[in-house]
Every structure is written in C-alpha cells, then in structure tokens.
Design a protein that fits this description.
- By secondary structure, the chain is an all-alpha fold.
- The protein has one domain.
- Helices cover 75% and strands 0% of the residues.
- The protein contains five helices and no strands.
- It has helices at residues 4-38, 43-48, 50-64, 82-107, 113-137.
- The longest helix is centred in the first third of the chain and has 35 residues, at 4-38.
- The chain is globular, with a radius of gyration of 18 Å.
- The protein starts with a helix and ends in a 5-residue tail after the last helix.
Length: 142
C-alpha cells in the first residue's frame, strides 16, 4: 500500500517523458529557429505547428508506451482516429501555450513567476474538477 503511489508516480513520470519529450524537443528547436529569424513574431509559427506537434505526441504515445492493460482482455488497436488526435491536441495545447508564454517572458527579460503560478493554479483547478467528476461517477471509491 505504501509503495504503490511512488511506483505509480515513477511509471507516470517515465510515460510522460516518453510521450512529450520528442514533441517538446521539436517545439523548442522550431521556436529557437523562428525567434532567431523573426524575433517575437516567430512564436506565432510555433502555434501554427501545434497540429503537427500534437500528431507527433500522439505517435509517441501510440508506439512508445505499452497498451496491453485493457481490463476486458481485448488487444489495443493502434492507429490515429479523430478522437485520439483531438485528445492529444487537448493535452498538447496547454503545454505549447505555457512554453510560448515562458519563452516570451525570457525574450523580454521579464519575471516568469506569474506564468508559473498561473500554470500551477490551472493544474490544481483541473485536478480538483477531474477528481470531483470522477468521484461523482464512482461514488463508492473513497
């Protein structure tokens, strides 16, 4: 009981690294090239590349992480569907927005505390809402 949360946390960290490291590397290289060429306006190009970044994140999720944990025993079907792409786009969008805002603050040598605090507040609010909805769907799990 005491070992399960740290082990699950470690597995989640490894999974997050496998899924989002390559898209973030692509994002960082693209942002660096575009800001060197177009200064601050180059960051809009990174927003235009968001669909490609989400596709790369989906690919990393679909092919670099194991999916053989279905409770009913059915095998996982690999492949891109509209629903899977939209879910990954929903996960990738706040990551990209945070990175762009953080980089913009870096370019202008401004404090990054407000961006970090806003991201932390956003994560807490989303976690509370998600936990509340999960508790409402499964009231016996306490």
């Amino acid at each position: 009981m005491y070992l399960f949360p740290p082990i699950l946390g470690f597995v989640a960290i490894i999974g997050t690294f496998l899924i989002f490291s390559l898209p973030q590397y692509f994002h960082a290289i693209l942002a660096d090239v575009l800001t060197q060429r177009f200064n601050r306006r180059g960051l809009f190009g990174v927003l235009l590349a968001l669909p490609l970044t989400a596709g790369l994140a989906w690919y990393c999720f679909d092919y670099l992480t194991p999916h053989d944990f279905n409770p009913d025993g059915t095998p996982y079907q690999h492949g891109l569907t509209l629903q899977r792409y939209l879910v990954m786009l929903a996960f990738q969008t706040p990551i990209t927005l945070f990175s762009l805002l953080y980089r913009d603050r870096t370019i202008h040598a401004q404090s990054k505390k407000s961006i970090i605090m806003a991201a932390l507040l956003f994560a807490v609010v989303v976690g509370v809402i998600w936990g509340y909805q999960d508790q409402c769907r499964h009231p016996g799990n306490q």
